[in-house]
Amino acid sequence: MAITLRAGNFFLLGKFTATRSWHRALLLCLLLILGGTGRAFAQTYILNEDFSSASGTTPPTGWLNSAGSGPATDKWHFDNPGGRNINYPFSGSFAIFDSENYSTDGGKETATLETRFFDASVSQNTVLYFDHFFAGGKGGKGMVEVFNGFIWQFVASYSDSTANPQSEVYNISSLVRGATGAKVRFRWEGNNSHYWAIDNIRIYAPLPLDAGISALDAPSMPFKAGTQPIQIRLTNFGANTLSKTTIGWSVNNVVQTAYNWTGNLALGMSANDVKIGTYAFPAGKPVQLKVWQSKPNGLNDPNVQNDTLAVTLYSSLCGLYTIGGTNPDFQNFTEAVTALNNAGVGCGVTFRVRNGSYNEQVKLGQISGASATAPIVFESESGDSTKVALHYQETNPSNDYTLVLEGTDYITFRKLGILRSNGQSGSSAVIIRNGAHHVSFRNTQLNRVSSPGTSCDSVLTFAGNAVTGGIFLANLSTQPASRVAITGNTFTSPYSASESSIGLSYTTGALVQGNTVAPSINSGSEVTSVNVTNSSNPKINNNHLFAYGYYSTYGVIVSSTVNAEISDNTIQGGCYSSSGYSSYGIQVRGVAA
């Protein structure tokens, strides 16, 4: 017979297999007796994994983590290398395949996370539960499959984003068929296609009575301020049919009117979009929403672990907000960025940051609603860039940055510092990637800025900044970046001995004007002030360039570039070595493609 696990979405084919072994019959009998008393008894867990014992790409004991197509390093991680902010019930270590973060080879990748073997013969009913957040798009796909000792069988697949972390429950009884050597696996397929995070994987023999809130269906961020419906997903985790329960909820710890639900849900089935009330959301303010169920079928729920859902929601931001100091709208950058990433903007937004050093690491994505008429601005409230700094100071080799702009558009940082301490050699304070555009840094204190050359990041403006460590912007050979302007900045030595203070690759019409590059004395390698490669129509003029070192030094290098205009620059340099090294003002190399 056909068994529908979730109406309209996922289907399983097969037959239920009853067992006659005395120990399974005894277990089922005990579960029925204990569940009927209404006392609090836990599920009989066959497998229960929260990944607390996992690290890096090393899975829990007995699990397998393997790469398919793509580099051998394209595996599931348990250390969240992309620094993704994922809400409750995720906590501590969890499994994530972050295609966008570390799969940049340009080819398809597949990766499989496989559980240890488990014995499904302990009960005639076997349920799979897990929490996950799937960031869909760009061809990414996630699949769940079950092994019954002979073959792998399909359970579910995902390609669309989940609005919030959500719980899934599947009755896999007909698939495992009481196998003593069963497994579950999670398979990712994509190509730099966002990510899939999974936590709290449980395989269990269900209690007769067990209901829970498995997801918030609405509102789904981003959403506008004002009155919104509160809609949840109610799931029957128990073996007995669920016919009624009471759903309570609170907002910012204020209890709201409960909702009495009635219906008919078999094991593993869910009631979606259950409207339990409405709430008037203020613009851009955090709202703590908590939803719980109680008294399923009029009895006490033996398992309270899955009764409650708690989330933080933001309506779209609009207007002026403060960060830090006394009575701010947001305590720090992390809170503000979490709101932006999840809620988006409904109009132009300005964050005024109060004086202080904020030891934080933040990543901004593509912000919903941001545009030329609804830009985003981060600026110091005092107007003094030396008194306000986003300054990440922890040693973190796998996430060695302070600020990442991951496809972020229409955003400006001005009159504040963005700094990095205790990073590896060549680490960047700011990383710009994944097609970011209309990004400006004005009158800031900056450590090294880079884009890795895996996308086209265009319409980038750097004006009036004090830069230590250089600006190095690389783009795709097939899609050069346009409208890159580096004007009126002051540069000191680059972090890496082999880098330029200003380095541009694959650009068209770039402007490098009015900058001062301070003397760069370096004993380890060549010194270059401005280096433009594989570009067209750059303008390099009215700069004051200094290049001193123990090896060859260069004021300007232009290589494989057409129609370069180099004019009205002051170039001064020198080489301290007498071992055949030289100092060059302007050097033209190669032939443009």
CATH topology-level fold name of the largest domain: Jelly Rolls
Radius of gyration: 28 Å
Distance from N terminus to C terminus (CA atoms, Å) equals 64 Å
The count of helical stretches stands at 4
Estimated share of beta-strand residues: over 45%
| Broad CATH class of the largest domain | Mainly Beta
Unreliable segments (pLDDT under 50, ≥5 consecutive)? Answer: 1-41
Give the name of the CATH architecture of the largest domain: Sandwich
What is the average of the pLDDT values?
A: 86
Category from helices, strands and their pairing: mainly beta
Secondary structure tally: strands: 48
Tally of distinct domains: 3
Largest sheet: 16 strands, parallel
- Approximately how much helix is present in the residues? under 10%
- Shape assignment: elongated
Structural overview:
The chain is mainly beta. It has three domains: 1-207, Sandwich (Jelly Rolls); 209-315, Immunoglobulins (Immunoglobulin-like, Sandwich); 453-589, no CATH class. The chain has four helices and 48 strands. It has a 16-stranded parallel beta sheet that branches. A ten-stranded parallel beta sheet has the order 21-22-25-28-31-33-36-40-43-46, covered by helices on one side. Strands 3, 5, 7, 10 and 12 form a five-stranded antiparallel beta sheet that branches. Helix 4 (333-343) links the parallel strand 21 (317-323) and strand 22. The radius of gyration is 28 Å and the shape is elongated. Mean pLDDT is 86; it is low at 1-41.
